[in-house]
Structure formats: structure tokens, C-alpha cells
Amino acid sequence: MKFIDRGFFYKVFEYSESRVLKKRRSLLDILIYTKPKYLIQVFKQNNEAKKQTLIIKNKLSEIPGELFGNPFFVDKYNYTQDKVELLYHYFDKHI
To answer: pTM to 2 decimals?
Structure first.
């Protein structure tokens, strides 16, 4: 799989021509790139992101998956989803 980019909580890999794999970054990996004064915030955000991911995962049967790029969870936090164009890329091309 080809590495595409890294977000705050996930690394993104090309999964197929039309889908990507989002793999959760380890807390250690996140902390390496964090300034010491933000450590407490990172721990709080990490816990909140885990909670929100599980909520979305449990609600997928009730809400349209297209709103989230048709995610398919491969385990507790890692998932594949449709490739999408980032809004700032879209605006760069159309404005």
C-alpha cells in the first residue's frame, strides 16, 4: 500500500483505485510531533477521538454512509473509505 499523507490521528494509505485505508496513529507517534506544552490537550483529544469514532461506527446503520465516505471498519479504529477530494484542493481548482 502506498502512503498518501498523515493527519493528526490517522495515516492514510491508498487501498485501491477508489478507496483509502485510514490507520490510527499510535499515541507515541502523535506525541513525537507535539510540543511539550500541548501534551495534556493531546491526551484529551486522543480520548475524545476514540469515543467519537466508536459512536460513528455504532451509528452507521442509522445514518447514510455517504456522509462519511462510505467507511468500512476493518477493526476497532482502522477503516477504509471512498477517496475524496479535500475542500481546499477543490477550491484551488474552482476559484
So the answer is: 0.81
